[in-house]
Amino acid sequence: MAVPPEVAGQASESSGNGGGANAHKPLTPRESVVIRFAGDSGDGMQLVGMQFTSESALAGNDIATVPDFPAEIRAPAGTLAGVSSFQLNFSSSEIFTAGDEPNVLVAMNPAALRANLEDLPANAVLIIDKEAFTEANLKRAGYTSNPLTDHSLDKYQIFEVDVTRLTSLALQGSGLSNRDSFRCRNMFVLGMLSWLYQRPIETTVRYIESRFKKNQAILDANLKALKAGWNYGETTEMFASSYTVPKAEISAGFYRNITGNSATAMGFVVAANRAGRPLFLGSYTITPASDILHELAGYKNYNVYTFQAEDEIAGVCSSIGAAFGGAIAITSTSGPGMNLKAEAVGLAVKTELPIVICDVQRAGPSTGMPTKPEQTDLLQSMYGRHGESPVPIIAAMTPGDCFMAAYEAIRIAVKYMTPVILLTDGQLANGAEPWLVPDVSKLPEIKVEFAQQVEGQEFQPYSRDEETLSRPWAIPGTPGLQHRVGGITGEHLTGNISYSPSNHELMIRMRARKIAGITREIPPIEIFGDADGGDIVMLGWGSTFGPIREAVKQSRAKGKKVSHIHLRYLNPLPADLADKLRSFKKVLVAEMNMGQLLKMVRADYLIPAVGINKIQGRPFKVAELVTRISRALEEK
Amino acid sequence: MATALTRKDFVTDQEVRWCPGCGDYAILAQVQKQMPEFGIAPENTVFISGIGCSSRFPYYMNTYGFHTIHGRAPAIATGLKVSRPDLDVWVVTGDGDGLSIGGNHLIHCLRRNVDLKILLFNNKIYGLTKGQYSPTSEIGKVTKSTPMGSVDFPFNPITVALGAHATFVARSVDVEQKHLGVTLKRAHDHRGASFVEILQNCNIFNDGAFNDVSDKAIKSEHQLILEHGKPLVFGKNRDKGIRMNGMRPEVVAVGTDGKDLESIVVHDETNLALAFMLGNFEPPMPVPLGVFYATSRPTYDGAMNKQVIDSMAKGKGDPQKLLNGGDTWTVN
């Protein structure tokens, strides 16, 4: 059994004994490793994944993660529906995705094995809690024979570890119940894997100490299990070698690990702080957006108000009310909630009040697959309202990028007095990456100037700034500026109710021009690849950034003239986009939908772009895109 | 106030566009009359409405105003009041706006006890869409959408509000100007969500719906004016009273047949059970007008602001520190 897991990661050129703290066994370098931790949703696999991620970040690797968990909080234990997993790619070079397929799968029970096996390439390493493969668990997972003995796993390298027994042995005498001991299994696994890949466990020790500070017995047990796992790796003959993944070359600076929802929440907080105004979030809970509400609820000392509304409509409406009063107002939701908010967004368009609607997209329609990502709300964001109601749309590309996308959404909303839609998705929301922490003082200015009474002048709530066409923000409490706003068509300048046909068209065109003018805020497009055009440009937006960039990079490494343009601003589209796209022979638009940006590009520019579409609630695999690029090149 | 406010300070130059004879005119007049009494400057006052005839109200008040979308005024007002507790925020709604499409927001706003003054104009009909039955229309109501009579059992706004544990619940009538004025004052002085049902005549689609309490000839026989600490007596000669017969209320003659006032129920605004009982009065019982229920409970906006203020007092958040938190490391 003591066969070194030779394909536990992509072997790099050199190998040797790293020595150091772990001189007993040889160290084998790896360029990168993709691990997937899988278990029952009560097994704590998300926690193990996140801690392993922190350890890897501290080890200096570039990292990318993708969690995958069931919508059910506690599906019946041991069933396929209850399997929760966390995939992590850690590398010594720059990476853009969490990896197409895991090199290592940790399976805590038969269901976790069965649910993930199809993603595993031949020769992958399987680390299994042998004791969980009981007859009952096998049956629950739908196995008719035990895969550990029926040779169905022969093409993998299997490491059967008695995780449950070893954990309870390590905790003997701690006075813990069997149930509590069982719950420490994940820390044993984390300790073992941390040894196997020589991760520093200090960060996990600190985490355990802080997480369980109110329960010393549980704290001690978790630490014991963690260390027992580490020691097991080091002393047992199970593993002949441990592995190192050298530090990646990462730009110098101060980093933190951050998830998309966390970055989004912080982007909002910092933007409001920069604007010198309170932040108001009106929101109804919905997966996968709720963490934004949770996070902001903890930031009250930043002058943050969170209102958990009775429904999605009240969420957006309360934020419109707060915006009317001069707060930086936002609402967070996911696809179905966007539909419910649509009417109110129309009101914000008409009254020209600044709010940000953050849509953490998920697989639909209807309930769909709430914990799985999709990019299917772009056209809804563009057109899913009554009347002519253009709304700027901004999309985040990576978990860390959610920060700047949220910040920018508020900047645009306030500057142009308009609702802005911020699109992220479930993959960005829960995925984590190392994030170069920005210097707050160097972020773009967000200027809020409320209208004031000018002696001898009648206030006109719908007068316009010459450049931006935005109207004044006149908030209650300001003497002399009393005015009424509302959904009924208002007269140019005064805002008074008007049924004049020409005025109605004037106002619609005015707002459309205002939104179209936001192109002046968009920096010139940066093409990754051939700036002057080439055979193919891959066009994308949102969370497909990682797989597209990696696929383009790999294709270019093979000498292919492929480039990448990734959009942050989806409405208005950048002014230079059409010309840039036309400089390529082929435009491929890769999206996790049926071709929504594709339709916009074809309709706006009459460019015969071609779609690459995947609607499986899963990100593109790099290999899939590389294949599509090759095929498109052959087709010319 | 430096200079005393007058009615004129609250009147806009906008042409009032309700149907001639609409009960809304009387309500507008009384609100404009009362506002100066409250001593709040027009710029610190906000009127928020939804959709419907009543919801045109903000256009006629020279305060800040927001004519929003159907049913959502309580939600929009909540966002405003929570983030701007310094403002005096009023919600104007109707039986369709507040109890049909916006019923959810109304009850949640009441249970949270957001410090809003909510005026629900109840005319028991959809006026703006030209005469369909509303959620307060009586069963059997024949309208354009119910040619054979409505089969919907109606809501009673007072018991809906009480059921949502509103902290101030009152009823008045459009044409009872004096009573309306006093009720508005009480509603304004209350800290928390004040709910006032105003019985309002739609002379186009539901004329005379409240004749029993507005027709001078008969109203005193039907109005039961609620006054805290006073016995529940009514009638032109104040010769009828409400007495408990076991657990059931009944109307009895007072004075003439020897039944003295001692057996008559004394109104207690703080008694929720009594308020429910009065709220459920249907003919032949009289129509109670006045404050059914008033109690004190912390407001949502107050409690929310306290949390924010307390948190900030412990140390205002530094955005750079926020970003620098979590699992961090430095790459050289």
Number of strands of chain B: 12
Ends apart, CA distance between termini of chain B? 63 Å
Helix content of chain B: 25-40%
Give the helices and strands of chain B as they follow along the chain.
HEEHEHHEHEHEHEEEEHEHHE
CATH topology of the largest domain in chain B: Rossmann fold
Quickly count the helices of chain A.
20
Q: Alpha-carbon distance between the termini of chain A?
A: 51 Å
Q: What is the 3D shape of chain A?
A: globular
Percent in helix of chain A: 25-40%
Largest sheet geometry of chain A: 8 strands, mixed
Structural class of chain B: alpha/beta
Nearest-integer average pLDDT of chain A: 93
Strand portion of chain A: 15-25%
Number of strands of chain A: 22
Q: What ranges of chain A have pLDDT less than 50 throughout 5 or more consecutive residues?
A: 1-23
Task: Give structural notes.
The complex is a heterodimer of chains A (636) and B (332). Chain A is of the alpha/beta class and 636 residues long. In chain A, strands 1, 2, 3, 4, 5, 6, 7 and 8 form an 8-stranded mixed beta sheet that branches. In chain A, strands 11-10-12-13-15-14-20 form a 7-stranded mixed beta sheet, with helices on both faces. In chain A, strands 19-18-21-22 form a 4-stranded parallel beta sheet, with helices on both faces. In chain A, helix 17 (545-557) links the parallel strand 18 and strand 19. Residues 1-23 of chain A have low confidence and may be disordered. Chain B has 2 domains: 7-230 and 269-303, Thiamin diphosphate (ThDP)-binding fold, Pyr/PP domains (Rossmann fold); 232-266, no CATH class. Chain B contains 10 helices and 12 strands. The chains are: A alpha/beta (636), B alpha/beta (332).
